[in-house]
Each structure stands twice: as C-alpha cells, then as structure tokens.
Design brief:
Layout lengths: L4 E4 L3 H11 L5 E4 L11 E3 L5 E3 L10 H9 L4 E3 L5 E5 L7 E4 L8 E3 L4 H9 L6 E2 L4 E7 L2 E6 L4 E4 L1 E4 L3 H7 L1 E3 L4 H6 L11 E7 L3 H4 L2 E7 L4 E6 L8 E7 L8 H16 L8 E6 L27 E2 L4 E3 L12 H14 L1
Helix pairs in contact: 1-3, 1-8, 2-8
InterPro entries: Amino_oxidase, FAD/NAD-bd_sf, Flavin_MAO
Pfam families: Amino_oxidase
Protein name: Amine oxidase
C-alpha cells in the first residue's frame, strides 16, 4: 500500500517537495489555505499585461539549488537591469547622490514571464486532483498509526506523513496538534521570523522606459521618502516597462491611494514629470492570514530560521517541518525553500 503523504502549503517549498517526490512515483496531496498557489511568490499582470512582482523576485548564482530547478524545468532567467545612473537619497531637501553599478557586477536574476511561472510549472507537473485550494488545515491528530488532518470545512484526511510547508509561526498559531507538540517546540514556533511579513511591496507600469532614455538605471535607495528601495522592472523581451520596490514600514498605515500619491510625488521629484503618469500602480502589504497570524516574538532578522528543532520529526516520525524558514542555509529566500524541499524529499 502506498504511503499517504499530505503537504500543507502550496508555496515554493510545498510544490517543490511534491514535484521531487513525484519523480520517484511518490504521490502527495497538497493542501493550500488560500485561493491561489505560490505563497510569497505572486506575479500579477498589469494593464498592459506586464508581469509585475508583488512577492519574491530575485535570486543569484549562489542559489544553486534554485538555479538547478529552474534549469530542470526549462525556464529562462535573465539579469536584473542596472545600467546607468542609480540614486541614493539621504535627505528629502538635498539632491540625491548618484552612483553606478558595473554590469559585470550584476548580482541578481529574474525569471522570464515572472516568478509565478516557476510555481505554475511545478503545479503542472502534478495531477490537478492532488492540489486543493481554499483548504485551511485547523487540526492534526495522531490516531494509532496515522495522522488525521482536519480542515476548516470539516474534512478529515488520513495520512501516514504530514509535512508542514507553511511558516512555522503560522503552524503554531493556526493548527491544533493532538497530542500537543513538545513544549520547547511550541515555544519556538512564535519566535521564528516569517520572511517578508510586514513588508510593503509596490509595482508601477509605464508605457515607455523614460528613465533608461535619460540614462538612469531605475535603481533607487532612499532614507527620505516612502520608497526605500526600487528597481527597473522591464520584462525579458524589453517591451513592457515598470518599477518594483519596497515602501517604508509606516506606509502600511496609509490607504493604497495615499501610498500611490506619495510614491509618485517622490519619483516625480527624482526622475521627472513622466514618472507621475504610470499606466497602473499596485502594492501589497504582506500581513495577510496566509503568512502571518497573531503576534510574532521577533527581535532580529532571520530569528530562529533553520532552528534545530525544525529539523526534527514529531508525532512518532509522522510530522515534519519544511519551508524556507526551516532551511539551515539561505533561509527566507527562494533558495531556502528549495533546500528544505530537497531535505524532506531525501527523508521520505
């Protein structure tokens, strides 16, 4: 009889794990609480059909496991554009400092078509009936030699193994474990930082790359405005144009319309009038219920990511943790998600 494996979480870690296991003819059931796959990867299409990243975007040559997966799936990477004058704004009442990044030093890459193509391609490798959206797990109970996975709709799924591919903090706050997890594990889960939680990411779409035409790279770092980081977001074919970046922590308290107003005002002052007329503006505050729940006890970046307790199994070897925050290298990044999936695939 085939082992019944349930993967909780349809982000990069969960789908990568399901894909790696499928290559060995091991079937899994992926349960995703939200209405979409991808977790902290989310590419949307702009008004002009520009792929715009609201979530994870960049990776580097150091991310060899992710790079290998991308190559295996036949996807195309390309370097982040950085040619031209970049800006560093220290004070709102002073002109920005200018600096240049040599093209040979370009440290990061993007995926042709947007990062979502990685998620979509992984999902296409799996049987559609083995992926369930809008399926929130609320309880995991050990019953004799199996685990019973219960969802918010009352569904109960028996499993031989359950892999938690969601942020550790989310698992600890939203899932009831019977019998309870060991006290030291329960205590550590709220202290594992969920990478990107609280981040505010924005995207802008334009008819033309006016900044490139003026010799700017589109790269901006600022201590003075609502935009703290920004990068050129032109697509692989270089026929759709825009910016992507991050807003400061206080931006979350404003309405989206106010955030847009502040962003355009800052960019207009730095890049000229054409920055004031985007085709579209979108942003996302990464605090939704699918990545964060309750209060996190966080004092530093990457706190307790890759913690030894997250490497162990529980409920007599039937319950295991995965996800980028469990990785002992590159935790919080897409590379960490793939590393954690490979580790679990080697165990199962």
């Amino acid at each position: 009889m085939k082992e019944r494996i349930v993967i909780i979480g349809g982000g990069l870690s969960g789908l990568s794990l399901a894909y790696f296991l499928s290559k060995r003819d091991i079937e899994t059931q992926v349960l995703e609480a939200s209405p979409r796959l991808g977790g902290r990867i989310q590419t949307i299409n702009g008004t002009l059909d520009t792929p715009l990243e609201l979530g994870a975007t960049w990776f580097s040559e150091m991310h060899e496991h992710l790079d290998s997966l991308i190559h295996e799936l036949g996807l195309q990477k390309y370097p982040q554009f950085s040619k031209g004058t970049s800006l560093f704004q220290t004070k709102s009442f002073e002109p920005p400092q200018e600096f240049f990044v040599a093209e040979a030093e370009t440290p990061s890459f993007r995926l042709k078509g947007g990062t979502q193509v990685l998620i979509d391609t992984l999902a296409q490798k799996l049987a559609s009936e083995n992926i369930s959206l809008n399926t929130k797990v609320t309880a995991i109970t050990e019953v004799e030699n199996e685990l019973l996975v219960e969802t918010s709709s009352g569904q109960k799924l028996p499993a031989d193994k359950v892999i938690l591919c969601i942020p550790a903090q989310l698992a600890g706050s939203q899932i009831q474990f019977t019998p309870p997890l060991p006290e030291n594990v329960s205590n550590i889960l709220p202290t594992v930082q969920t990478w990107m939680s609280g981040a505010v990411k924005f995207v802008l779409e334009y008819n033309e790359p006016f900044w490139r035409n003026k010799g700017y790279s589109g790269m901006l770092y600022s201590h003075a405005g609502i935009v703290t980081e920004m990068y050129d977001h032109t697509n692989y074919e270089e026929n759709k144009f825009g910016f992507t970046g991050f807003l400061n922590g206080g931006a979350a308290s404003y309405s989206q319309e106010v955030r847009k107003e502040f962003v355009l005002r800052q960019l207009g002052e730095l890049l000229g009038k054409k920055a004031l007329n985007p085709v579209s503006y979108f942003d996302k505050i990464w605090t939704d219920e699918f990545i964060l729940s309750g209060n996190q006890v966080i004092q530093r970046p990457h706190q307790n990511n890759g913690h030894p307790l997250l490497q162990q199994s529980y409920m007599n070897g039937k319950l295991l943790f995965s996800g980028t925050e469990t990785a002992t290298a590159f935790s919080g990044y897409m590379e960490g998600a793939v590393i954690s999936a490979l580790r679990l695939a080697g165990i199962l």
